[in-house]
Amino acid sequence: MTTVKTKRPTPAPTFAGSISIGQLAKRFGLSRSTLLYYDSIGLLKPSARSRANYRRYTQEDAGRLEMICMYRQIGLSMLEIGEILNSPKNSVHDILEKRLLSLAKEIGRLREQQHLIIRMLGDRSLRKRIPVLDKEGWIALLRAVGLNDDAMHKWHQEFEKFSPLLHKEFLEGLGISAEELDLIRQWAQT
User: Fold this and answer.
1) Is the pLDDT of residue 127 over 70?
2) Which among 48, 61, 71, 190 could bridge 81 via Cys, Cβ 3.0 to 4.6 Å?
């Protein structure tokens, strides 16, 4: 996943009319060609043209660009951004929820990759240098604070009751196999 880093817009004095494409690009830390691209795909059309046919942008255009930058930062596609900006407000929720679920799956896949790489390298010292908590580390932590098997069972039961999905995601994050994860969740439900 690539992260698009955008500069926070510089608070500008109130617009006295409109600004040029270069000024708008500079205000948001974007290139002029990015704004030309947004225009070409219909994402950000200038509100006006100068007598010389140069693009001119208003405060409302800057507000729309701020929304585009925010949606890009959270990883939405241009198509999704266009859909949000050109649709009723209720579609925003659906698109953002879909992105959130997509991120959760991606995070899970990345955690699995971390655990696999650590196992492949066979270097247990990596666990101290890289913030990856696995099953053994979690059990050691629970034992260190005085939890015995009965207390751990109670902990899992409460977690499963509180949020089954969150409990599942937590266990997946520890690198536990799907089969063992199912067993733990069944055990927690008894």
Assistant:
1) no
2) 71
Q: How far apart are CA 148 and CA 39, in angstroms?
A: 62
Contacts 24+ apart (CB under 8 A), 96-101: 99/74, 99/75
Element (H, E) at 171: helix 164-173
Report the domain count for the chain.
2
β-sheet bridge partners, residue 55? 49
Tell which of 32, 53, 85 closes a domain.
85
For residue range 48-67, what is the model confidence (pLDDT) as tens digits? 998 999 999 999 999 999 99
| Sign of the CA dihedral running 175, 177, 181, 183 | negative
* Burial label, 68 (beta-carbon count in 10 A; 0-12, 13-18, 19+): buried
Q: Is residue 164 located within the same domain as residue 112?
A: yes
Query: Which pTM was predicted?
Result: 0.60
Listed in sequence order, the residues at least 6 apart from 147 whose beta carbon sits closer than 8 Å to its beta carbon are 155
At 12 the pLDDT is: 44
